[in-house]
Amino acid sequence: MNNLNLILVGVVAVALVVFSSLCLYTVDQREQALVFEFGRVVTEPITEPGLKFKLPYQNVEKFDKRLLVHDNVPVTVDVSENERLIVDAFARYRIVNALQFYETVRTPTIAKERLQVFLDSSIREVVGGQGLRAVISGERRLVMEQIRDLVQDASDDAELGIDVVDVRIKRADLPQQNSEDVFDRMRTERQQEAQLFRAEGEERKREIESEADRRVTVLLAKAERRAQEIRAEGDAYRNAIFACAYGADPEFFSFYRTMEAYERSFQTTDTTMVLSPDSEFFKFFGDASGSSGSGIEGLDSKTSRSLRSSDPNCGPDGEYDYQGISFLDPEAVEEVLEESLEQTLPTEGSALPSLEGGDQQSSLSPEPSPTEVPATELTEEDGSVVVPPPAEGAPTPADEIQN
User: What is the CATH number of domain 68-174?
Assistant: First the structure.
C-alpha cells in the first residue's frame, strides 16, 4: 500500500513538472513576449513581467525591451565638388511594438541592416546639404536631430515597430588625401601670414630706427649749438674778467702777461726769433720796470680810474662777481639737465617724443644771451671813448702787449 502511494506521488510530480514546462513561462522585466500557435500570433505583446500561462502546443518568442545600440559603418559624404567627409555615427533605439517588429524584420540582426540603410541615406542627405562647417560647429546638435527625425520617419514608413531615441556623430574626418591637402593649404596660409607680419615688423623697425637716428641727430645738433653758445658766452665773460683785472692794475697786468709770453716762448731750445733789440717784447730785459716806451707804466690815478671797467660785476680791486654766471652754478646746471632729459628722452612704454613743430629753446643758463652779456666799457672822463670787451677770437690788450 505504501509503495502504491509513493508511485502515485511520483506520477503526480512528474505530471506537474511536465505541465509547468509546457504550460507555464516567465517574462523578465527587461523583456516582452509574443505567444504563437502553429506559427501564428494569438495574443497581444506581453510587456508586464511575471509568471504566465499558455497551452502546451503554443510557443513563446521574447524580445528585448531595453535601449539598443546600432553602431553604423562610416559613411563617405560629398560635401562639395572637391571635398569629401567621412562620418562615423551610431543610433540608439527601442522596440516599442514587438508584433510589428516580428512581422517586419523578425530578428534584431535584420533590423540593424535596415537601420544601416536608413542611417546612411539620412546622413548623406543632411550632412551633404549643410556642409562641413555645420558638422564641426555649434550646429552639430541640430544636424544630429535632423538625422534622427529622418531615420524615425523611414522606420515608421517601413513599420519596423521601433523608436529611434537618438543619433550621434562620433567622428567627422576628411579622407587622408584631403586631410593632407587641407593641412598643406593651412600651412601655406600661416606661412604667408607670418611673412606678412615679419615684413610689417621689419618696416616698422626701419621706421623706428630712422626716427631714432633723426632724433639723435637733432639732439646732438641742439647740444652742439648750445655748447657753442655756452662757449661763446664763456669767452665773453672771460674777456670781461680780463678787462676788469686790466682796469684794476694795468701795470701789473702788463707785467704778468709779458712774463707768461716769455715762459711760452722759451719753453723749447729750438725756437729762433729775429727781433730788434729795442723791440717792445724785450722791454723788461733792459729795465725791470719796463719803461721802454710802453706807455702803460707810471700812470697817474686819474688815468688809472679811466681805464677801469664799467661792468657792474667788476669790483674796484679787480675781482669779478661770478654769481650772475648761471653755467658756473652746479645746482642750476643739474636742474636744467634733468629738465632737458625729461623733455627729450622717452619714458618706459611710451613712444619716442615728437620733434615736430620747431625746436624748443634749450638753455643751460637764463637770459641774457651771449650777445647780451654786459659790455665792459673803458671810457675817458669826457665820455668820448667807449671800448667794449674783445669778441671771441679777437686779441686782448694783454695779447697786444705780448706781441
Answer: 3.30.479.30
